[in-house]
Amino acid sequence: MRRSAILWILAFLITAASAVYQRVTGPTHPKRGRTSLAGQEIRYRLPRSMAGGDAVIRVPAASPQTIGTLAWKRHKTRDDWTYVVMAREGSELVGRLPQQPPAGKLAYRVILQDGSERVTLGGEPVVIRFRGEVPLPVLVLHVIAMFGAMLVGTRAGLEYFRPDPRYGRLVLWTLLLLTAGGLILGPVVQKYAFGAYWTGWPFGTDLTDNKTAVAWLAWLAAWWRLRRAPERAGAWVLGAAIVMMAVFAIPHSVLGSELKYE
Fold first, then answer.
1. How many Å apart are CA 21 and CA 19, to the nearest integer?
2. 102: helix, coil or strand?
3. Alpha-carbon radius of gyration of the chain
4. Which residues fall within 8 angstroms of residue 43, CB to CB, at 6 or more apart?
C-alpha cells in the first residue's frame, strides 16, 4: 500500500476518534447510570438536550409499586421547584418538561419511590438545554464540511513526516472547508438552534464558536506562511494541525449558548 494511502487512513481514524470523543463527552450527551430500588436494578438515560417541543423523560420501572416524581425549575433562577407525578406506560414511568425558548435550560430531578425506599437518579439535578430545529440539509452540509476540514487538516499535518512533503492543496482545502463549515454554515446552524449567529468572543463564551475561530486562524497563518516561504512552512502546517486537534478535543457545546432568564 502506498504511503499516501496509509496516511489518509491514519488521518481518518484520528478524525473519527476525535469526533466521537467530542459527542460522548459533551454536556449535551445524555446522562446514563444505574441504581437499585426495592431489590431491582434500574438503568436510566436522562436527556440533556432537546430540539423542538417538550422533553419526554422515560425511566424503566418494572415494579407496579414504583412511583416517580419529576421535579424541575428554570436553570440559574430563583424559581421554586415544580413537582409532577410521572405517568405509568407499561414498564416505564414518563414525565414531560415544558418546552423552553432556544438556549433555555431547565434543571430537573427524577425521584423514584417504592414503599419506604426512595432514590434520586444521578444524585445532582440534570440540566437540559432546548434548541430550535435546524433544517436537515444545513446540518448535514455543516457536519460534512467540519469533518472534512478535520480530516484534510490532520492529513496535512501528517504530510510533515514524508520525505518530500507537499502541503499546497491540503492546506488550501482545509482552510476552505473550515471557512464553509465553521464560519458560514456554523453560524447558520447556531441561528436556527439558539437564535444568534455568533455567541463566541467578543459577544459571549461559547467554546464551540471560539475553538472554531482559533482553528481557522491557525490554518490561515499556515496558508500565509506557505505562500510566503514554502520551504519553511512545514512547522507551521504541523502546528496548525496540532492546534486544530487540541481545540476540537474540547467536548462539544461546553459553555454553549444559554438564555439569561433574569
1. 5
2. coil
3. 23
4. 32, 33, 34, 60
* pLDDT over threshold 80, residue 255: no
* Phi, then psi, of 84 in degrees rounded to 5: -130, 130
Q: Give the whole-angstrom CA distance, residue 16 versus residue 1.
A: 21
Number of C-beta neighbours around residue 232 at 10 A: 10
CB 22 within 8 A of CB 248: yes
CB atoms within 10 A of CB 89: 9
Q: In whole angstroms, what is the distance from residue 109 CA to residue 49 CA?
A: 15
pLDDT at position 201, please?
A: 76
Cα–Cα separations (whole angstroms), residue 60 to 7, 40, 57: 46, 11, 10
The cell numbers describing 210, all together, are 471560539
Sign of CA dihedral 143, 146, 149, 150: negative
Tell me the whole-structure pTM to 2 decimals.
0.82
* Strand partners of residue 34: 43
Q: Say if CB 222 and CB 214 are below 8 A apart.
A: no
Q: How far apart are CA 99 and CA 118, in angstroms?
A: 28
Kindly indicate the confidence band of residue 1, based on its pLDDT and cuts at 50, 70 and 90: low
- Which residues are within 8 A (CB) of 184 and not within 5 positions of it... i.e. 6 or more apart? none
**Could you write out the DSSP letters of every residue in 40-86?**
EEEEEEE--EEESSPEEEEEE--STT-EEEEEEEETTS-PPPEEEEP
Q: Residue 129: in which H helix or E strand, if any?
A: strand 126-131
Cell representation of residue 259: 438564555
Q: Is 224 exposed, middle or buried (0-12, 13-18, 19+ CB in 10 A)?
A: middle
State the Cα–Cα distance between residues 196 and 259, nearest whole angstrom: 11
